Amino acid sequence: MYKLVILAVMTFNLGYDLVMRVLAVRQKKKPLPENVRDIYDEKEYARWREYSAEKSRAGLVSTLADFVLGLILFGTNVLSAVYHVLPGGDYLKSILLMLVYAAFLTLWSIPYEYYVTMKIEGKYGFNKTDGKTFVTDTVSNFVINFIVNAALMCFAMFMFDRMGTMFFVVLFAFIALFMLAVNMLSMTFMRIFNKFTPLPDGSLRDTLVAMFREAGYELSDIRVMDASRRTTKVNAFCTGLGKFKKIALYDNLVENYTEDEIAAVFAHELAHFKHRDTAKMTAYNMLTMAVLTAMIAAFALIPQISFDYGFTDVNFAFAIAALTGVLLSPVMTVLQIPSAFFGRRYEYRADRMAAELGYGEAMVTVLKKLARDNFSDLNPHPVIVALEHNHPTVSARIEAIRKVEKKR
Fold this sequence. Notes:
- With 408 residues, the protein is mainly alpha-helical.
- The protein has one domain (2-184, 277-407).
- It is built from 15 helices and 4 strands.
- A 4-stranded mixed beta sheet has the order 1-2-4-3.
- Helix 2 (42-75) runs antiparallel to helix 4 (90-123), helix 4 packs antiparallel against helix 5 (131-163) and helix 4 (90-123) runs parallel beside helix 13 (316-373).
- The protein is globular, with a radius of gyration of 23 Å.
């Protein structure tokens, strides 16, 4: 019975993905909104269409291949068959099963990741990653993800052995604390893959420091990240708790954007801090973690799920594999709808603050340059935006900024 439920969820995931792809293809045939037509000229827009079509085809092939793999992994008892031939007790066998599962999925995904990163992104001039960096990133991501999932699994097993079905309360606290640590130390974790150097003294640094101090914050650090080693795409972000904030700027942002444009970006970020948007989204993500914990607990409360797949007892390695590989996707699809809705509202409000601080025109220029540099979709389907996008479209954001500018 439960095997059929999991297969039905897999089919739903595939159907949802295909519907979204059909909507995206149909939308590409429609003309761009008037206020963003100057972002791409005719030749560049044709190039964007080709880029988008190539990524879409590669994604479709990957989706169908993953579905076939899922039918093998979750339509049969192959995972329990592997588990029963592994050496050791329950803990060691579960860790080894997770290792085998994670290693296989990583190897399975490498052709797609390599093709998209090295071929498609490289063809259109976005990828700066060389073969050595690609391998290093792949191995590092595998090791980090495996350690995190193995720690989660062992902790769940340990607490279940001692607390029974009430273990999920402690498990949720463990996941929540880990999530908070990741948020607080995000720049520290990113140093594993990137180099951060101090932003030199000068007018840009003075402007950003003054802006944040006027709002009651202290910038404890301003760093430039060597993102250009991997991509030509542009980004920037702020981290930190309380009054002390850290700023990270992509090096290609510092090199290719004016000081007013960078200041506009951080006036926008300042609004997120002022209205505690990041804290609100973190709280919502905690709700997501509560749902994840409840789903892990369901495997313990319903041992028949493990039995249906050939295990003789509740198996947490299988539970995490089934959750991350199949069951979490539709749950996240539903949970991201309100998250995306509020995310779009927060973005409008942050843009408004940038305009009110006198950076409205610079913000419009930034949005257009970011869209051009990141090769963004300027006219996504409204249904896809409503269901998945936590940022409004570039056209909608520019229109909202223009309204603020008229009132000033």
